[in-house]
Request: fold
Amino acid sequence: MTATPPIASESELEDRLSQPPPAVVETFRRLPGDVLVLGAGGKMGPSLARMAARAAQAAGSGACIIAVSRFSDAGLRQRLEEWGIETVACDLLEPGALARLPRCPNVVYMPARKFGSSGAEWETWATNAFLPGAVGQAFPSSRMVAFSTGNVYPLWPVAQPPPDEDATLGPVGEYAQSCLGRERVLGYVSRRHGTPMVLLRLNYAVELRYGVLVDLARKVHAGEPIELGMGHVNVIWQGDANAYALQAFALCASPPAVLNVTGPLVRVADVAARLGELLGRPPLLAGAAAATALLSDPGRCHRRFGPPAVELETMLAWIADWVRRGGSTLGKPTRFEVRDGRF
Reply:
């Protein structure tokens, strides 16, 4: 098999993360109306909004993509506008803020708070459980693709098949509990108003500047120990996660549909070993894998929309090359190894 060329620059990375596959373009041919992306300033929002804009243009739909964020980074707002995306600067938790937003028939809901939750739990609950209800009440007639997380599942025995969308939930820690709160509140809104929704339980999206595989590659490269307690994880290329999320508009229903959005289940020790080969530095492993881990079964997603386009080996090769060359990062470790739910 021919090796996939490395990604040379951030501009090329942004282009790859936002390139809409044909299925996403077809989604926009069938999707009437504009798309409002709430919480578009996070790690995933800009590339998702850009993919939507490129898909709408390729489909000739005329749909406008509107990105909403506080936009503390003025440069991000400028880039989005250069990509043909309208922007609205807004703190969604401010009184009256939601009333000032344009009413769009399609909403991507992305606001979330994870890191810094311990010690500021009230802020986490406000963002993850209060805000979804306010947004749902403000957009009762819109189709809504809402991001959730695989953290709503309990730590799962690795010897058993991973949990699918019908598995019993058991969030560990207040962050994960607040995420289940988000799902329950959106479920209430959907049932109360008939709002068509889909809840996307995502974990873990990866690109070259952020993600579990980046955390591991940087530790291998630096000769830092890798704790093996959380010995198994699911990972997915962020561009594939973007594509699944936009195609998920076709699944919106009341009560909400639920979809695990992720990629292959991998052993952390195996990934570290492969990164060591690619980086020419053997990994320094510490501890032993526990009998449980945070896992998800993405079978329903893959059966409906096809398997991820970017395979694990390609991700590892791209990331190893990026780390070796000193490529930039977002400076936000995933802390995937946390087992007590405290972030």
